[in-house]
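> Could you send the TonB-dependent siderophore receptor prediction when you get a chance?

Sure thing. Input:
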Amino acid sequence: MTVYTVSWRHRPSVRVLAAVLFSSQLAVPALAQEAGAEAEAASPAADSGAIELPEMVVTGSGYETETTDSYTTDFISVGEKDTRLWREVPQSTTVLTREYLEDRNASSLDTALRDAPGLLVLDNDNGRSSLYSRGFEFDSLSFNGLPAPLSSIYGTQPDMAIVDHVEILKGPSGLFAGAGEPAGAINMHLKRPLREFQGSSEVSGDSWGGVRGEADLSVPFTEDGDVRGRLVLARGHDEGWVDNNDNDVSVGYGTMQADLTNMTTASLTISHMQRDIEPYNGLPTYADGTLLDIDRSTTTGADWNDFDNRVTDYIGELEHRFADGGHAKVSARYSDRDVDFLYGYAGSAAAANGDISSVSWLARDYEETSLALDSHISKPIRLFGQEHNVLVGADYQRFENTFKQGRGATGDTNNIFHWNTNLTRPSVTYSSQTETETDQYGLYGQVRIKPIDDLTLIGGGRSTWYQSETTDLLTSTQTGEQDVDAEFTPYAGVVYDLTETISPYVSYTEIFQPQSQVNASGQTLEPRQGSQYEAGVKASLLDGGLNASAAVFHLTDENRPMSDGAGNTVAGEEVEVEGVEFEVSGNIQPNWEVLAGYTYSRSEYVNGTNSGDVFSTYTPRHMAHLWTKYRFNTGGWMNDLFVGGGVKAFSDFKSISRGTTINADGYVVVDVMAGYDITDSVTATLTVNNLFDEKYYSRVGGASVFNFYGEPRSALLSLKAVF
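Output:
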């Protein structure tokens, strides 16, 4: 075996990292050539003294959910590079399976996460909502484990037609992510081609006038299915309950996969999404922050409001599986995003008679490209009668964006009770134009040691190099720079298998976030540091059909920018978030599925001028979700009938904007569903959302914008055929 050793004292250049990644890429095909010999060497017939490992059966990537008809899965990969039993990951995790996504009619990521335990979605146009966990907003998403930047305003969240399941990890995930917010990680496991022919089509329509169609076709190109492909197409038109708030989406997705050997698989995926929206920025409040009691269809937009984006992603993967259960993988993702929008909205709070003293407008032209490369190897090691695991890898990310913005007032006035959308269209001039280039590269490793059969000790670490530069395109001057050298991020966890189905755990995780502010000496502030202690227990109940978990967590975010009292900025503010979570998912009975969770959390500033104040005012202290589905299976015509229902209950929350406090009451919303298998391949489903037509605010923001009503009672009818 050839061993390559690379050492340095300063930041490694992109060339060095590229060499490491490229060496790994060369190694994988070589390993593939050795697969036959390795498999033979592992056979007891080849060596009577060899250790016989348990048989491993892998189907696809080993954890697809679309054919399971279940609300749970035993395997996850979020927060890991391996696909592992969910009980082996010592942090809170949630999985939204394909069955659940379809039952909840999820079309975009934010619509899927609105009912996910422990998650908070600050509503906006579908595809543009902000996603939160434990008080912090997600600033990246992963596709098959490869990260991409996320900014909610640009509407780049993926359509769910291309997704097999969504995995969520809560709390800092810096070991494999590098820089980021301490919210956690979201991984979209995209649909894979199947070895056997499968097709489906679905059409749906709702009581607002929205329609949607999907087509999904998976085809084997060889008799044994070693070469296979899949095509997914979707198109939707959503009118919603707010006047002049249409939302159109078009999606194309193609993926091919080939087994180069029985141990090596290559895949290529291309996806393209377009959104065309008449955006809506929410309602204003009265001047004192009191929320309006008004028709939920009320708009505050202009008839020229427009939002367009184009998102194209390319993913390539090459994986070799070793006979001992290990694997080596190289993967790459390239994304190109183009977003343009112009919209008008209320520029002031409403007077007592509803008058709006000004109408504002915002325009942006945003272009972004991003590249993510990852190469890693994971191998089990047999020592002292136990099997351990070692994983090492390297990754690289590059983001480039061009940002142009203009904003102002239209010169109009209006009245919230009689809104006139015929507003003066501005002549847009981009007063702010910047270009930002960001590079991040890192080396990471993780070991899993089993001193005894039932105990796993997990340790890991990462060194990250991060550099970002922002240039003002109008003046050609550099306006911002962030430079982080060899930032070390530790990871530690302990999992103890109390029984074959119950595993208590503890973990410590970290993440960092570079800052752009400077101190009195002109030096960039040290990065924010997020860290979390978590303890919990995970259990597989009812013969493995039902997964249950409970956790308590304590999260801190340090080095936040604050004033030193003399007009200077220092990295000294600290935030603390703590809480408990409970979750169950899976089969109560073979014909009865459930996904439910409860989260209690509190957050506060622990020092600085905000000391003692609530940090994440948007986040309700109590959040509860329940969704369940029951198939009768009693024979006769009822054998094809299924029903479902759910409850979402949030306690009160608020927003503090420019000294104005906006309070929102808690709410309880009930949804129901009924469906019937017309034939073995055709199913009709009717869903009624907000059954009791609860009138509530799902999000509050500022005195002039970002106050959104939740959806009124509505119905959606879908018809799906499989072939």
